[in-house]
């Protein structure tokens, strides 16, 4: 039975109020989306510990490839636990090792189950499975209802068996990114269905200066990808001890250069602690053969901040990501109908200001993110404890939702694998 809009709204608002109340005052900034639009983001563990790559920056431990996946029924229990925390339309990352190594039927079933109970599953992958099995992505969309996918692409990755195996620079990987962009476009064309795509990039001292070119490439291909997330390397798992991750300031300096706006961080948003992650939502705009990113809002604009605050007060938590077309239209009427006076009074002036900044109708939404994990030493510091208390990225382990940083840096992942190996039972066979 599909829940009513009213039921979903009540559940979402109750969850968001609890999350907002748990935030310290210092984090309740004007562009804080935790507790206003999202409750956080959850990830699975043990669903597929193995990976057929051997990347220089890897949070898995050495024993991962020798572990068997947990039964599908346990994976579904993890998904249910995350649903209780995240609420309707919550963000779920289907990940662990390389999730696409699961039997096709099992992954399709898990995606479909997550959607059925009200989460939005995103498959996290290196993508090579879909290069060799292009119809598999279409099956995930048509049979499982998959609408979101994320490809990890960078020069720390080792395992591709082609000319990209030892790419020396990120620019050398742009043709691989273009291949994935075409896979995305083709899957949309063939199925007639929506597919939102993102990409993650590990950042080290070795590829830091390549970041502007990566940003420029993604902005130029905003029709295929809607987000890129840069993640400085951290000494966890099997990460090469010689790889050093840059500071957030260093990463953002290169992002700004690639985005073509020296004041890009006027559009900075938070999801939890700003030292854990920051993002800029904007419009990718082509001007004189160069694509730049124009932020959706400006923190130095009282009018923009006033509109954003009132908008989140009225419709915060609303999501159309699980809706088919007619249900989306019905939801829009139900949610926005009572707010028509506000949208006319405040929404139209905001759109006028944004339109003047963008300067063209030929623009596409795009979001740039940085996510900063912690090592064990950082976790035990005062700042680390402050950050984990407001963690937005959690994993279900033994009935608790644990911060991902703790899972990777404090041995929780290894202990989980050991526990699940002892309790191993015959695998559930997907129908």
Can you describe what's shown?
The protein is of the alpha/beta class and 431 residues long. It has a single domain (5-422), classed as TIM Barrel, CATH 3.20.20.70. 40% of the residues lie in helices and 17% in strands. The protein has 15 helices and twelve strands. The protein has helices spanning 5-22, 72-86, 104-116, 128-132, 134-142, 174-191, 211-220, 248-259, 302-315, 325-336, 340-358, 376-379, 382-389, 404-409, 412-422; strands at residues 41-43, 90-94, 119-125, 148-152, 196-203, 227-232, 268-270, 277-287, 290-295, 363-371, 393-397, 400-403. Strands 1, 2, 3, 4, 5, 6, 7, 8, 9, 10, 11 and 12 form a twelve-stranded mixed β-sheet that branches. Strand 2, helix 3 and strand 3 form a beta-alpha-beta unit. Helix 2 runs parallel beside helix 3.
Defining key terms:
single chain, alpha/beta, TIM Barrel, 12 strands, 40% helix, globular, disordered C terminus
Count of spatially separate domains: 1
Helix content: 40-55%
Supply the CATH superfamily name.
Aldolase class I
Poorly predicted regions: 427-431
Specify the structural class. Answer: alpha/beta
Q: What can be said about the biggest beta sheet?
A: 12 strands, mixed
Radius of gyration: 21 Å
What is CATH's topology name? TIM Barrel
Secondary-structure element sequence? HEHEHEHHEHEHEHEEEHHHEHHEEHH
| Strand portion | 15-25%
The CATH class designation is Alpha Beta
